């Protein structure tokens, strides 16, 4: 009997040695295939998972290591009380400290309730981002990706989260750090994309990031060279100011358009431009309010993408009509109030609405996933560190597109309007010098130019001062001024109409007086 037991142990040892060599061979082939790209990363990773789950080995656990991959297999029973993998118990395959994982006792509860049996827990550490490339080519902390899987089942909605600790040998201040997981099938051109859903980010120290996630998959820490997370204490005031300001602007824009339609007077090109601008402002505010609501109550993916595309179109059209206002002002002053362009309003309408629509449709055609939930990090300070939470808004997901077609587009229109303002003031100053009799009208024109150009361009340039000591005042000033933009535009148009009526009445009185004297 002792001889049979010894023979059985030897056979198990030989099988374990053979399995270990096969797994190491697969892991080495994965490393060698990185340069050749013969097999897709998805198949390589999934192939490794299946081999680890089906591996035969002697003992309760098995550890395998190559240059950039480390795999661990654990045999778990239904009496599982939790497992902690510290960085000191793992092999140091990199100069940086290896991430640590802590699994709760709840991990095996659902699987054992369905059918009590021995379970397999696999943990895979990738010290390279090659197998997890997304469309944005995201930067990951230390280029570490680590994953876990329990048997062949899917584990999610854990009440006690899986805790993952990441370290860096330098301070991480100045970076936006977000715990993310690899969401399979979330991209058209790659086998997945990074998503923060189900994960909470905490930063106990400047060089440590702690992730709390309610499911098992592949995890990493996303690093972004972007502005610091929005402090939680500022979130509620900014949201309130945006809600109130945009709501007032919506009412003011609607009132302006309704009054314009009610009057039914023959309109010139300037009035048509004003109404188109007010229409774009109305669309922008409505889309923004709906997008902000979606941040509280998440909407389905296609609906969020459609809302994000609408919001982007409204912003681009608003910026375009601002530039058209500046261009029209240049024509009015440059041609000394005498300008005629065939089908002028129709051409401006095609430019103001057509160009933004073309840009948005082009983005949707090239890559529809450019629109969707945009994660905004929210920081909450505690005594022992900082917790980074997340909120989302339906907006552009691509930082490159945001820089080019939001910041760049706004920058061009703001610079154009500033140039028009400077030229207009110079032209009016020259008119004052030539004819003192027009000084009253010149002063009125100066006020008109300042009011129009400031309201239609310069306030958006505040977006370029969101750094350093300017960040806090810029947030509130930008939110207040631009959320009330539709209301300010309504006031300006109202006073312009009142001034025109007063001027017409004065001219009529002067004409009547001259007729009576004759």
SSE arrangement:
Elements (H helix, E strand, L loop, with lengths): L1 H35 L4 H13 L7 E5 L3 E8 L6 E3 L14 E4 L5 H6 L4 E8 L12 E2 L4 E6 L11 E6 L8 E9 L7 E4 L3 E7 L2 E6 L4 E7 L5 E2 H32 L5 H28 L4 H34 L9 H23 L4 E12 L2 E12 L2 H36 L4 H18 L14 H13 L1 H33 L1
Parallel strand pairs: 14-15
Antiparallel strand pairs: 1-2, 2-5, 3-4, 4-8, 5-7, 6-13, 7-13, 8-12, 9-10, 9-13, 11-12, 11-16, 15-16
Stretches where pLDDT is under 50 for at least 5 consecutive residues are 7-18
Largest sheet: 8 strands, antiparallel
What order do the SSEs take from the amino end to the carboxyl end, as H and E?
Answer: HHEEEEHEEEEEEEEEEHHHHEEHHHH
Q: Which range best describes the helical content: under 10%, 10-25%, 25-40%, 40-55%, 55-70% or over 70%? A: 40-55%
Strand content: 15-25%
End-to-end CA span: 139 Å
Quick one: overall form? Answer: elongated
Total beta strand runs: 16
Q: Determine Rg (CA atoms, Å).
A: 32 Å
Structural class: alpha+beta
> Assembly state here?
single chain
Give a short overview.
One of its GO terms (cellular component) is plasma membrane. This protein has 518 residues and is an alpha+beta fold. It is 52% helix and 19% strand.
How would you describe this protein?
The strands form two sheets. Strands 1, 2, 5, 6, 7, 9, 10 and 13 form an eight-stranded antiparallel beta sheet that branches. 52% of the residues lie in helices and 19% in strands. It has helices at 2-36, 41-53, 109-114, 232-263, 269-296, 301-334, 344-366, 399-434, 439-456, 471-483, 485-517, and strands at 61-65, 69-76, 83-85, 100-103, 119-126, 139-140, 145-150, 162-167, 176-184, 192-195, 199-205, 208-213, 218-224, 230-231, 371-382, 385-396. Strand 1 and strand 2 (69-76) form a beta hairpin.
């Amino acid at each position: 009997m002792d001889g049979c037991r010894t023979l059985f142990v030897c056979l198990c040892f030989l099988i374990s040695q053979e399995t270990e060599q096969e797994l190491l061979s697969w892991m080495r082939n994965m490393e060698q295939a990185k340069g050749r790209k013969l097999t897709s990363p998805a198949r390589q990773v999934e192939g490794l998972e299946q081999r680890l789950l089906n591996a035969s080995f002697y003992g309760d656990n098995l550890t395998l290591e190559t240059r950039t991959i480390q795999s661990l297999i654990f045999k778990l029973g239904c009496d599982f009380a939790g497992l902690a993998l510290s960085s000191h118990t793992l092999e140091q395959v990199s100069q940086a400290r290896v991430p640590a994982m802590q699994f709760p006792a709840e991990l095996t509860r659902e699987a054992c309730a369905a059918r009590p049996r021995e379970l397999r827990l696999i943990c895979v550490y990738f010290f390279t981002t090659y197998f997890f490339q997304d469309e944005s080519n995201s930067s990951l902390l230390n280029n570490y990706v680590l994953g876990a899987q329990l048997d062949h089942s899917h584990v999610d909605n854990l009440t006690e989260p899986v805790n993952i600790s990441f370290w860096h040998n330098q301070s991480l201040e100045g970076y936006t750090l977000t715990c993310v997981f690899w969401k399979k099938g979330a991209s058209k051109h790659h086998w997945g994309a990074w998503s923060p859903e189900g994960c909470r980010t905490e930063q106990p120290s400047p060089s440590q990031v702690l992730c709390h996630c309610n499911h098992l998959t592949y995890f990493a820490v996303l690093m972004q060279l972007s502005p610091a997370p929005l402090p939680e204490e500022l979130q509620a005031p900014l949201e309130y100011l945006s809600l109130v300001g945009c709501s007032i602007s919506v009412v003011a824009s609607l009132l302006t358009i309704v009054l314009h339609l009610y009057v039914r007077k023959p309109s010139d090109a300037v009035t048509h431009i004003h109404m188109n601008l007010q229409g774009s402002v109305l669309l922008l505010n409505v889309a923004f309010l709906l997008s902000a609501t979606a941040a509280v109550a998440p909407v389905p993916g296609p609906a969020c993408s459609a809302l994000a595309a609408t919001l982007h179109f409204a912003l681009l059209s608003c910026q375009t009509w601002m530039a058209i206002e500046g261009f029209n002002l240049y024509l009015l002053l440059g041609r000394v109030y005498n300008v005629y362009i065939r089908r002028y309003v129709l051409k401006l309408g095609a430019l103001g609405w057509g160009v933004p629509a073309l840009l948005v449709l082009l983005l949707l055609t090239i890559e529809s996933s450019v629109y969707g939930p945009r994660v905004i990090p929210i920081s909450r300070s505690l005594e022992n560190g900082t917790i980074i939470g997340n909120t989302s808004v339906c907006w552009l997901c691509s930082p490159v597109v945001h820089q080019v077609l939001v910041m760049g587009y706004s920058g061009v229109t703001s610079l154009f309007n500033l140039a028009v303002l400077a030229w207009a003031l110079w032209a009016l100053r020259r008119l004052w010098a030539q004819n003192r009799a027009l000084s009253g009208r010149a002063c009125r024109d100066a006020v008109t130019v300042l009011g129009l150009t400031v309201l239609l361009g310069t306030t958006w340039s505040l977006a370029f001062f969101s750094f350093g000591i300017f960040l806090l005042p810029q947030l509130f000033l930008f939110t207040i001024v631009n959320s009330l933009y539709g209301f300010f535009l309504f006031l300006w148009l109202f006073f312009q109409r009142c001034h025109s009526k007063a001027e017409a009445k004065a001219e009529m009185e002067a004409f009547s007086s001259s007729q009576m004297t004759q």
